[in-house]
Amino acid sequence: MCARSISIHLKLNSVAEFIGLIATQGKGRIGMTKQNTLTCLLALSFMAAHGQYALAQTARPSILQLDEVNLVNYSLDIGDVTKAATSSAITPAAIQPTFQKGTGIGDIVAVNGQAVKGTHIITYTRINSTPIVTPGQAIADVTRGTVIFHFVEIQGADGTAIGTITGQGFSRGEPPPGSSAAVTTSNAVITGGTGAFAGARGFLGTTNPQTSVPNRSASFVEDPAYRRVNGGGTARYIFTLYPYESPQIIAIAHADYSLVSAAKPTIAGETLIMIATGLGPTRPGVEVGQNFPSSLLAAVNSPIAVTVNGTAAPVLGAVGYPGSTDRYQVNFQVPSGLKGMAQVQVSAAWMTGPAWTINVQ
Length: 361
Prior knowledge:
Blueprint: H1 2-10, H2 13-24, H3 40-50, E1 62-75, E2 101-111, E3 114-130, E4 138-139, E5 144-156, E6 161-170, E7 185-195, E8 201-207, E9 216-219, H4 227-230, E10 233-242, E11 248-253, E12 271-277, E13 282-283, E14 298-300, E15 304-308, E16 311-313, E17 315-320, E18 328-333, E19 340-348, E20 351-352, E21 356-360
Parallel strand pairs: 1-9, 3-4
Antiparallel strand pairs: 1-2, 1-10, 2-3, 3-5, 5-6, 6-7, 7-8, 8-10, 11-12, 12-18, 13-14, 14-17, 15-16, 15-19, 17-18, 19-20, 19-21
Helix pairs in contact: 1-3
């Protein structure tokens, strides 16, 4: 009867899998004793009362603001390739207005204000298109600077690899329709990614920080080994990212694995257990389609953040749930000063999923 109710009433195989997983596993807790088994009736009543997971299936866009320093554009301004990257001194580029090719290199220092490491490589061909006939520039219906390709690799502040994002499009000119209000120029599409950003799509543009430093144009003669010594410009890129899969909360429970509900609310300061999907790769990694191991907890590789009514909640741990292929356990603490209905959201690599409602006493 329980299985039939899940199939007909909820029509969610993932919920059935989750119930079976909780009922059969006694592993995967982060610093806690062995869990109590959830009853089918309790799980069904909880899901029926909240109906939240069924409404949270579509990947949601997230905004990633990348701040960069030491950005230098190396212009292909020489014919003798043996002179490339031979001078440690600052060497200004011999700029030609149109058809010049080049490579830009910058250091990523923050994503959405969180300190990170990383590198942004761009390759470009200058076209300087304009609707007005201008000698030396390309006549076109739109105003653009270059045809540009973006290669972004992001690491945690400790150097842990998080993922890459690739994109291509145009620099300068009007941003695309539907872009973030923070984007002031450029029109490029996100073509994919790896790691936490595998399968991502979207678009990107640029804006300038209030304390911006102009990008520096260097000759191909200048050695990029001295880029940070010689210095460069600052930049702020805005990525509107549509992930292949958004983080999804499928249950929130107390330490004894009884579900948080109107009948059994949480309190400020309590440590809760979240079961979620879509949190991405782990350390150690697992082969595609293979279960997370039971012998060694697989920590989520990406930065994980939890908010409750917009307030940051301390995250105590995030792991792949042993025996599952895409279930994760996140232990977090309810912030102080909350009471009544509260919205919980989880993000992985700055990509945020839909809210889940809990009761705070």
